[in-house]
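Re-run with default settings, no changes from the original entry. Doing this only to confirm the output is reproducible before filing.
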Amino acid sequence: QVQLVESGGGLVQAGGSLGLSCAASGIRFSTYNMGWYRQAPGNERELVAAVTAGGNINYADSVKGRATISRDNSKNTVYLQMNSLKPEDTAVYYCNADSAKFFNVNYWGKGTLVTVSS
């Protein structure tokens, strides 16, 4: 059974920092592209950052310079460090695993809420 379990969300003041983790099980983690997405109330889910199985990284323009995504294949975990947080970063953050080997094999975590107060 595949599980993606996010942790690290919470309430933080604007300008602060937060680190999120996503622990994966039930998949061959190293063969998956991993991503962090977020969804704010009334908005569509959007990509925040992604790291491919090969280590290529991309960020949404809205978080460039403030976010760092990393993965540890030995721990089956992907991380997202967010700095200089803004109220508009408030959202539920979801972890996503997308197979780099097989088409349309994709999993989601249940999400963790990040609230940034002004």
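The chain has no helices and eleven strands. The two ends are 40 Å apart (CA to CA).
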